[in-house]
Amino acid sequence: MAKTYNRLEIDVNKKPTDIITAVQADSNSRYLDVSLFNNGVPLDLTGHEVKIFMAKPEESGEIWNDGVITNAKEGRCEFLMTTEALARMGHLQTQISIWKDNTEILSTQVFEIYVTKTLLGNSSVESSNEYGTLVVLFQNLYEAYALMTDMVSSFGKKGAVADARNIVTFWQGVEYLAKYMDTDLKGLLEKAIANSSVQGVLDLIGTSGDSGNTTVMGKENKMLNALSNMIPLYRADDYLEYEYIDTFIILNNSEISSTKSAEKTLGIFQPPEGCVKVVLTANIKGYYGSVYLGGLYGMYNVSASISSSKDLTEYQELTKEIEFADTLPSSVKITFTGGTSGTAYCNNVTIKAYRLKRVVTTELHQANTIKNYGSVASGYYKFKQCPRLDRVFTSTGDNGQTFEVDHIPYVRNVAGNKDFKVFY
């Protein structure tokens, strides 16, 4: 679908003066590309949301929708001009707001978008209200309600023993057990130690099958039985996945050529903090051209490349994902070389950088079981993500690298899936 973008720079402390136009009845093809500033400094939108509110011409309805943050550090975001927004000719009164944790924290001053008349008479749309943000909010509330219902069901209800001791909450049960350990258990042990008879000591300690109140084991078994009706036997999952950081332009519409393996330096890539993966894209033509990432990397060199597999008569875009066993160094040299004969050309090179981030799911998994999703290979389960090391029971082959995030070790297999048995 054809798309067009209206570029707009807005300072939240100033009234926008740019003239913005759109055409009536255009269908989901026009976007506002907005950069937000605060007294000339880009607003950092990291961890925030953006929304747009529009009042239609002649009080014909309202629009309230979510936007998409395209570059959080630079304060850049975009908004779709929906069919409803362009239903009526005239001036759209528009305001952009910034939200965090479902609370509005900042708004721009009101500006106008002029919707011009279309010549296609049969393309008119009956104007009505559109509240996309509320639809998303109601969906989130529904999912939260479903999760809470599931958690209450999994937690269970207290049993007869807990009821007899007037234990209502989980933490009351824990405090009851702690009090018992500090008083009753301590007294029984002191009594046992004071008893000169070895058999007397054993009698007071009891056995694992005791259920009465006269031995240590009997009292503990009663407490464990009470708590078993209250402690949830389910655990949430957490793992690592890749998080996009930024795109870096190394070469932009500037042709570089190389002959017979002659190395040409394209630039220096300075990876952002925590970068462990890049997606390298290059336009190459000619005889077997290659773009290389190279440089001092710890005690060894980075050696990764993207190459054409044949003599190309026209420019072809080549893309390659490259994962690294550890975070990249502060500087990596980017070079271009040709094949063993002829001439190779390159005119565009970009690098997308990624780091690892921890994801905690809302899905609960029953304790003492194996997680059962993903493809199966010889009885083991494949994880594209990086599972927690303390949950990996066995694996085929080695365990890959150990990578820590938030001081928690995860098993990470670079450049492919790894077969794991993961216990909960």
Shape: flat
The CA-CA distance between the termini, in Å, is: 46 Å
Largest sheet: 6 strands, mixed
Can you count the beta strands? Answer: 26
Structural class: alpha+beta
The pLDDT mean sits at 78
Rg computed from alpha carbons, rounded to a whole number of angstroms = 32 Å
Outline the low-pLDDT stretches: 296-301
Notable traits:
26 strands; single chain; six-stranded mixed sheet; five-stranded mixed sheet; 424 residues; 17% helix; 46% strand; alpha+beta
Structure characterization notes:
There is one protein chain. This protein has six helices and 26 strands. With 424 residues, the protein is of the alpha+beta class. α4 packs antiparallel against α5. The chain starts with a strand and ends with a strand.
Task: Summarize it.
The chain is an alpha+beta fold and 424 residues long.
